[in-house]
Structures are given as structure tokens and as C-alpha cells.
Amino acid sequence: MSGMILDPSFHAPRCPENAPEHAAGLIRLGLRPGLPTGLVMFGGVGSKDAIRVVRALNRPGMGVQLIVLCGRHEESLQAVRAIEAHIPMHLQDFTRDVAFYMGLADFFIGKPGPGSISEALAMHLPVIVESNIRTMIHERYNAQWIREQQLGLVVGSFDKLGEAIPELLDPERFASFRANTARIRNSAVYDAVQWLDSILGNHGTAGAEAALPRSNFNQRLTPA
Q: What angle do the packed helices 171-183 and 161-169 form, to 10 degrees?
């Protein structure tokens, strides 16, 4: 497998950033075309860390705007809504249209979870993740891998995002990060279909059934 299986929508061609449709999508969200757009996400459940990210970047003159996907974390959604906005922001509760929002973003901010990182990289978004003693052990290597592959930045605390953003958006570094994300080829959702087709083709339905434990095989043949 070439990576984590993702919804095919993450593999669809992105709308060019200079296309009218891209600008129209940002305008519909109350955002400004041409302004670097960060997508903030902590999975479908969400996290209070979204509040920390917004507070760190919600400064006049920061030069960015945010799409904040709060997931099912109602507390975070309400807390961010209560913050006086000094930068353009679009706030969203749980949605299944993550690929749509990522398609409007230029970079990703979130935890170093395999799903979120895989989705962002499939959309060619450089990433900023936090890694420290609070990071789950099984996610720490993901942060190390991001450093090794030069796919974005790893910060010790989201409180330091105000310093990290200018580094990420430096034109030369950002172009390098973007090119590196384009090198990551994840076609796992299609790989899986090919592997299953190969397995079924090699063994056949009869062979697969014969390989089942007898009790399970009998249960399959027993009418409900």
C-alpha cells in the first residue's frame, strides 16, 4: 500500500488558485482571495487546541486567514466565535466536506495524526503540527517524518505559531514545502481495490470459501 486509504475526493484535481471558482469559494466563506489561507483541523471530534491556534494567529497584520473546522467540539466552536476577529476567519462545525475546505487552503495546521496529515498532503498542503510531551506516543514519529521529508514545520507549542507562520510562508521555503508535498504519492484507495481483485482472481470464490473455518462456512450456508 502506498499510504493511508482516503476518500477519493482528496485525490480529485484541485481547482487552480487563480481560477474564478477558487476565488468565489473563498468569498462565499467570507474570506479574501489572494490572502494565504490556513486550514485548522483536529479530526472529526475536534479539540480545544483550535482555540490556542486561533489566539496565536488572530493578530492585526498577521497576513493570513483561517478556515477553522471544529468538528463535534462544540466548546471550541463557541469559544472561537466569542473571540473578536482581527483576521478573516470561517468557522465550521462537523462536516464531511473536508476536501472542499482543504481545496481552498494553502497550508494545514493540526495534530500529527496520520489521517489529517495524509489528507493535507494529498491536497498538496504544507503542514504545521505540534509535537511535545503531550503528543501521543504513536503520533510522535509522524512529526519526525514531516521534518525528515521537509513537508512543513513542527512546533513545540501552538503558542509559537506567530513566529512559525512567517517562516512557512517565506516564498522560497513555501515553494520547497509545496514541491515536497507533491512528491508524496498516495494511491492507497486504488491500491486496495487492485489487491482485492488480485486476491479474488488468484483464489476464486470457491477457494476462499473452502479456506473458511467449517463452522463459519456452515453459518453462511444456513438460511436466516
A: 80
**Structural domain harbouring 102:** 8-183
Kindly state the average pLDDT of the residues 90-98. 95
Q: Are strands 89-92 and 152-155 parallel, antiparallel or unpaired?
A: unpaired
Residue 169 in any domain: the answer is yes
Question: Same structural domain for residues 92 and 202?
Answer: no
Are 98 and 120 within 8 A, CB to CB? no
Q: What is the dihedral of CA 108, 55, 34, 90, to 10 degrees?
A: 80
Calpha distance 193→198 (Å, rounded): 9
153 and 201 within one domain:
no
What is the Cα–Cα distance from 53 to 158, expressed in whole angstroms?
Answer: 6
The DSSP letter of residue 4 is: -
In this prediction the pTM is: 0.82
Q: How many domains does the chain have?
A: 2
* Joined grid coordinates for residue 127: 503542514
Q: pLDDT by residue (tens digit) across 115-151?
A: 899 999 999 999 999 999 989 998 999 999 999 999 9
3-state secondary structure of 84: coil
Domain membership of residue 1 (yes or no) is no
- What's the CA gap between 16 and 78, in Å, rounded? 33
